[in-house]
């Protein structure tokens, strides 16, 4: 074990490895969930959407939270998703065009 100041390099490596594995697992689970939701969509379009989500996870997490907030207030899930999509339409269009 190597100690640098108050930091234990072994623990730092272990934590970094754990974060990497957790990130990979989350990415894999997200991809599986997205594929299930997009199953009626053409494969090429599915790949574009998945790539957008992978490149901009914070933006799509924020959208998800906005939808959840609206649903908790009693709004229908589809209506909430449409309203949030319309509110973020410019950014979504920009991301979609960048992916082409």
In brief, what are we looking at here?
With 100 residues, the protein is mainly α. The protein is built from 5 helices and 2 strands.
Q: Can you describe what's shown?
A:
Strands 1-2 form a two-stranded antiparallel sheet. Residues 1-19 have low confidence and may be disordered. With 100 residues, it is mainly α. The chain contains 5 helices and 2 strands, in the order E-E-H-H-H-H-H. Strand 1 and strand 2 form a beta hairpin. Helix 3 crosses helix 4. The protein has helices at 9-37, 43-55, 57-72, 77-87, 89-98, and strands at residues 3-4, 7-8. It has 2 domains: 1-37; 41-100, no CATH class.
Shape: globular
Helix fraction, binned, reads: over 70%
**Structural class assignment:** mainly alpha
Order of helices and strands: EEHHHHH
Architecture blueprint of SSEs:
Elements lengths: L2 E2 L2 E2 H29 L5 H13 L1 H16 L4 H11 L1 H10 L2
Antiparallel strand pairs: 1-2
Helix pairs in contact: 3-4
Write out key terms for the chains shown.
2 domains, 79% helix, single chain, mainly alpha, globular, 100 residues, disordered N terminus, two-stranded antiparallel sheet, 5 helices
């Amino acid at each position: 074990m190597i100690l640098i100041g108050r930091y234990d390099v072994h623990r730092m490596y272990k934590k970094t490895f754990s974060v990497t594995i957790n990130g990979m697992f989350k990415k894999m689970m997200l991809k599986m969930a997205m594929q299930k939701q997009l199953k009626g969509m053409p494969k090429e379009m599915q790949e574009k959407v998945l790539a957008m989500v992978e490149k901009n996870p914070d933006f799509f997490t924020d959208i998800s939270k906005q939808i959840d907030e609206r649903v908790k207030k009693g709004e229908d899930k589809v209506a909430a998703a449409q309203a949030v999509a319309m509110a973020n339409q410019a950014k979504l269009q920009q991301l979609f065009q960048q992916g082409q």
